[in-house]
Amino acid sequence: MITVVKIGGNVIDNASALSGFLDVFSKLEGPKMLVHGGGKLATRLSAQMGVKTKMVEGRRVTDKKTLDIVTMVYAGLTNKNIVAALSARGVKAVGLSGADANVIPATKRAPNPIDFGYVGDINPAEVNTDFIKTLLDADIVPVFCALTHDSHGSLLNSNADSVASAVAIATSHISATRLVFCFEKPGVLLDVEDDNSVIPIINRSKYAELRAKNLIFEGMLPKIDGAFKAIDNGVKEVIIKCADSLLCNTGTTIQE
Ligand SMILES: Nc1ncnc2c1ncn2[C@@H]1O[C@H](COP(=O)(O)OP(=O)(O)O)[C@@H](O)[C@H]1O
Ligand SMILES: CC(=O)N[C@@H](CCC(=O)OP(=O)(O)O)C(=O)O
């Protein structure tokens, strides 16, 4: 079973939480991949550089300046620090953007109804699964940042949850795959302020009910959208859980 793990910006931004997560991730058995975000740091650096951040339903509106900033933050600082930390833990990790080996091509979003700028949507059928298989067969752990490319020379910014979902769908065609979204909370919560309110299972009708009541919003939206897409397209298991309990049987399971 291949495991695709996604780790988000709130954990990456907390040195001890990230270190604890990487300790556990390095112990995870079997072929595995890591997809990381880093949105929080990108927002902070943008502010320091005088560039305004605009998020719509958990996705960053990405103009040219913002694209340059996220490229530096995601493909540079964040990706390389994670790869170095995994190497220190004895994991043979290789850091990749979607442009490397043409591993994740994407299509720039149409400017209507919202112009997201340099934001790319991924077709999982276009993911370079052969290349990923070559790495996994060599016991190498690919570490993906959330940058894709348009095949015409421009990088694109994709939501890291969408990257994780697309990669998991792609590898599910070569081997059974499970997808684990790790973040700072213990799962999808009925009350976002109450860590004891984890919803154990979410199916489509439950999701519709929770959205209608505004109990799921912002960054949780691309996560759950990516989770359903994965489940609908061949991924065996999708779980949303806390980064510090990667190996435990906890969190929210997404079901058809
Ligand atoms: N029902 C919910 N349960 C848990 N978190 C939720 C929920 N609805 C919205 N959220 C928000 O989604 C955030 C996670 O999304 P995001 O910040 O994008 O995470 P990451 O960067 O880890 O992908 C949480 O910090 C929380 O503020
Ligand atoms: C298009 C888009 O929204 N891209 C995301 C990519 C990073 C990300 O998803 O980071 P987290 O997982 O930490 O939220 C962004 O720039 O915020």
Description:
The chain has 256 residues and is α/β, with parallel strands linked by helices. It has a single domain (2-254), classed as Carbamate kinase. It is built from eight helices and 14 strands. It has helices spanning 9-12, 15-27, 39-48, 64-88, 129-137, 160-171, 204-212, 220-232; strands at residues 2-7, 32-36, 55-56, 59-60, 93-96, 107-108, 120-121, 141-144, 147-149, 155-157, 177-183, 201-202, 237-242, 252-254. A hairpin with a 5-residue loop joins strand 9 and strand 10. The radius of gyration is 17 Å and the shape is globular. It starts with a strand and ends with a strand. The model has no long low-confidence stretch (mean pLDDT 97). Adenosine-5'-diphosphate is lined by residues 8-10, 37, 39, 58, 161, 183, 185, 188-189, 192, 215-220.
Characteristics:
256 residues, alpha/beta, Carbamate kinase, eight-stranded mixed β-sheet, two-stranded antiparallel sheet, 14 strands, 37% helix, globular, binds adenosine-5'-diphosphate, binds N-acetyl-L-glutamyl 5-phosphate
Describe the SSE topology.
Elements: E1 2-7, H1 9-12, H2 15-27, E2 32-36, H3 39-48, E3 55-56, E4 59-60, H4 64-88, E5 93-96, E6 107-108, E7 120-121, H5 129-137, E8 141-144, E9 147-149, E10 155-157, H6 160-171, E11 177-183, E12 201-202, H7 204-212, H8 220-232, E13 237-242, E14 252-254
Helix pairs in contact: 3-4, 6-8
This protein binds adenosine-5'-diphosphate and N-acetyl-L-glutamyl 5-phosphate.
Residues 8-10, 37, 39, 58, 161, 183, 185, 188-189, 192, 215-220 line the site of adenosine-5'-diphosphate.
